[in-house]
TrEMBL record, chain A:
Pfam families in UniProt: Sulf_transp (PF04143)
Entry annotated with the keyword Cell cycle: no
Protein name, as recorded: Membrane protein, putative
Spans through the membrane: 28-46, 67-87, 99-122, 134-154, 181-200
The keyword Glycoprotein is annotated on this UniProt entry: no
Keywords: Membrane, Transmembrane, Transmembrane helix
From TrEMBL, chain B:
Similarity section: Belongs to the TsuA/YedE (TC 9.B.102) family.
Lineage: Bacteria, Pseudomonadati, Campylobacterota, Epsilonproteobacteria, Campylobacterales
GO cellular component: plasma membrane
Pfam families per UniProt: Sulf_transp
Name the record gives this protein: Uncharacterized protein
InterPro entries: Sulf_transp_TsuA/YedE
Keyword match Zinc-finger: no
Cell location: Cell inner membrane
Record has Transport as a keyword: yes
Positions of transmembrane segments: 65-87, 108-128, 148-167
Keywords: Cell inner membrane, Cell membrane, Membrane, Transmembrane, Transmembrane helix, Transport
Topology of the protein relative to the lipid bilayer: Multi-pass membrane protein
Length: 213, 172
């Protein structure tokens, strides 16, 4: 099965595209159809909840809209409890990213500042592009160049800047002996935060006008 | 100014559905990997600029994750487009968001230059940290990863500080 029709060693964007599909087939993290479907549902939820909007993300940065943190904290709180017990039941594995302090802090500062200005992140940006936001397409061109620069200067600049990994500690490791309790408390507190954050919404006059028609 | 709200999911329904999608994705019945949405960017840069992954340490290290997210991205674009046209009916071409007009300025050039600049910085930042809102915040914190909590805390603080000083939020 590894000599499928997609097998192409060529260069150029089309054969690279086939190599992408082929890589998904071979790496065993779901079929191409499933990965595509995960994307469709992700895009659908984000678009339907309207959390890809500038008014929602930059609006939160201005503390005039709190839908994004409410939705995100609720998802994290529920998932954290579920994933912990799914691991115990053997139906999932953890994929924890390393603690690289300089990378996380410098990266987090750059990411937070640009998220406030663009009003998107890499997950919500494509949804905005799909609904016709030309400014976000320009942002994506900037992002692709950022990806290029990161790749070109990875060895000399960015990898040294990331620093050494301090391991892949997770919260329950810190509370040895009380693992389950620490997970339940974390999940409950995060859900509670989601509920307690006051609900604020920045109106988008254009979209609300459309809805009136 | 009591406008009629556009057709959309409530925050709690959105949060529950996003949680279910993450659980499906990460389970061994699904893809047995978390949701991520920033590795695809350098991966697609590699495709567009035709960089050979064999010659670039970074591209080689993200080859599998980048391809996976690349296919997911096609789905995201498709799902976002279909939902905006048929469900929320919010598809329209626009250059400057109304919130930018209200709290920043009316200049198309200003919005586009800032978007370009922010997009560039955002991907450098996400790749330095090894993740973004999806990979660190949503997937990482849901796995109780300390790396995600550090990233989440820094992003949240910087986001709010930038929001306070970049926009004119007073006197409106």
């Amino acid at each position: 099965m590894n000599e499928v029709i997609f097998k192409t060693d060529g260069e150029g964007i089309l054969s690279r595209f086939y190599q992408m599909i082929e890589s998904v087939i071979e790496q065993g993290h779901g079929s191409v159809a499933l990965v595509f479907l995960i994307g469709v549902i992700f895009g659908g939820i984000v678009q339907y909840a309207r959390v890809d909007k500038f008014e929602k993300i930059a609006g939160f940065a201005m503390l005039k809209d709190t839908i994004v943190p409410k939705m995100l904290f609720l998802a994290v709180g529920l998932s954290s409890i579920a994933i912990y017990f799914m691991v115990e039941a053997g139906v999932t594995n953890l994929h924890v990213k390393p603690i690289i302090l300089p990378g996380l802090i410098i990266g987090g500062i750059l990411f937070g500042a640009s998220m406030a200005i663009l009003g998107k992140c890499p997950g919500t940006g494509p949804v905005s592009m799909a609904e016709g936001r030309i400014d976000v397409m320009v942002g994506a061109i900037g992002g692709l160049l950022g990806g290029l620069v990161f790749t070109l200067f990875y060895d000399d600049v960015f990898q040294p800047l990331q620093g050494e990994s301090l391991g892949t500690t997770i919260l329950p490791n810190i509370f040895e002996g009380n693992e389950e309790m620490s997970v339940l408390i974390f999940g409950a507190v995060v859900v509670l935060i989601a509920i307690l954050i006051p609900k604020l919404e920045m109106e988008d006059e254009l979209e609300d006008k459309d809805a009136l028609r | 100014m009591a406008h009629k709200k556009a057709n959309r999911l409530s925050w709690w329904m959105g949060g529950i559905l996003m949680s279910l999608l993450l659980l499906l994705t990460i389970s061994t019945f699904g893809a047995d990997r978390p949701i991520g949405a920033s590795t695809y960017v350098p991966y697609i840069s590699g495709l567009i600029f035709n960089l050979d992954p064999e010659h670039y340490t970074y591209l080689k290290s993200i080859n599998n994750a980048g391809a996976w997210e690349g296919v997911m991205l096609i789905g995201v674009l498709f799902g976002g487009f279909i939902t905006s046209v048929f469900i929320t009916k919010t598809f329209r071409f626009s250059l400057v968001p109304s919130g930018w007009k209200k709290y920043k300025n009316n200049s198309v050039l200003s919005r586009l230059s800032w978007s370009f600049f922010a997009g560039f910085i955002m991907i450098i930042g996400a790749r330095l940290a090894g993740g973004c809102t999806s990979g660190h915040f949503l997937s990482g914190m849901s796995q109780l990863a300390m790396s995600a909590m550090v990233f989440g805390g820094v992003v949240m603080a910087t986001l709010l500080i930038t929001g306070k000083f970049f926009y004119n939020t007073k006197g409106s």
